[in-house]
TrEMBL record:
Alphabetical list of Pfam families matching this protein: DUF3097_C, DUF3097_N
The DUF3097 domain, residue ranges: 25-82, 111-276
The protein, known as: DUF3097 domain-containing protein
InterPro entries named among the record's database cross-references: DUF3097_C, DUF3097_N
Length: 278
């Protein structure tokens, strides 16, 4: 026989019976959430005065108040400000190395890392900047490697002034490979290391998924590569300013080493080790 009145309505927890409990989540950096009212999905960039800033895949920023109205993997959460430990506790830099907080940048070493262009330098700074400042390593771009021999003769590398060089499209038989081989036979060979990645341009070292692609488009050799990529993606490319904006759009999707291809990661780490060897 069903006893409709057997339950004790004053028993502990009666107020929560049947209620859906929405969990809280600290808004730590790089956490990806969706704001339900607008459908905006992005990664947490910062939290200031109970406002969270999100950045989506296209680099667009939106500000929202902390609290309810967010989803993580489709499940509702209430975003709260991160604790002090969480806010300060990013134990890894963008390159994946252990972060060393509250340490001033080291005075710049005499040794240098040379890269071919501005985009290479900006990418290296974004991922390895914290490590390079800690080690006191300056990265300079040299606008191509055609004049590498003259640059090395002017710099005059030595055991106290080592040079690491990162080269695009370093594949067998290429012009770049011949330049690298000449540097390895030159008078400063003991204190110069030239390494490279196989990509036509450093753009291609960014994983294509970061810009919504399954693979970077094939560009005919008769077309300048960056222009061809922009054209394939439907981005403006008539002027140099268009190319610069396209690169910033790509760079905006790079947050950690996980967004880059391993062929680039290993080369840069090798160069850093070479120029910081005591």
């Amino acid at each position: 026989m069903d006893d409709r009145y057997s339950a004790d309505v004053l028993s502990p927890g009666w107020r929560e019976a049947g209620r859906i409990i929405i969990p809280t989540q600290e808004a730590v950096r790089d956490l990806v959430v969706e704001e339900t009212a607008t459908g905006f999905c992005g990664a947490v960039i910062r939290v200031e005065k109970k406002i969270v800033t999100l950045e989506d895949r296209q680099g667009k920023l939106r500000l929202f108040p902390l609290g309810s109205g967010f989803l993580i993997d489709g499940r509702p959460v209430t975003l709260i400000a991160p604790t002090m430990a969480a806010a300060l506790g990013r134990v890894r830099t963008a390159s994946g190395s252990t972060a060393v907080p509250n340490v001033p940048a080291r005075v710049a070493r005499a040794s240098r890392i040379f890269v071919e262009g501005r985009h290479d330098a900006e990418l290296v700074e974004k991922i390895w900047g914290a490590d390079l400042r800690l080690e006191g390593v300056v990265v300079e771009y040299i606008e191509g490697v055609d004049n590498l021999d003259a640059i090395l003769r002017e710099f005059r590398p030595s055991s106290a002034r080592r040079v690491g060089v990162l080269v695009d499209h370093l594949v067998p038989g290429s012009k770049e490979s011949r330049i690298a081989e000449a540097a390895a036979r030159g008078p400063f060979a003991a204190n110069v290391l030239v390494v490279g990645h196989p990509f036509v341009d450093v753009w291609q070292s960014v994983k294509p998924a970061r810009v919504g692609l399954t693979a970077w488009p094939e560009v005919p050799r008769s077309i300048e590569w960056k222009h061809g990529i922009c054209d394939a993606l439907g981005w403006p490319h008539e002027e140099q300013a268009d190319i610069a904006r396209a690169w910033q759009r790509i760079l905006g999707q790079v947050r950690t080493f996980a967004d880059l291809e391993p062929q680039l990661l290993g080369r840069v780490e090798h160069l850093i080790d070479f120029v910081t060897a005591e």
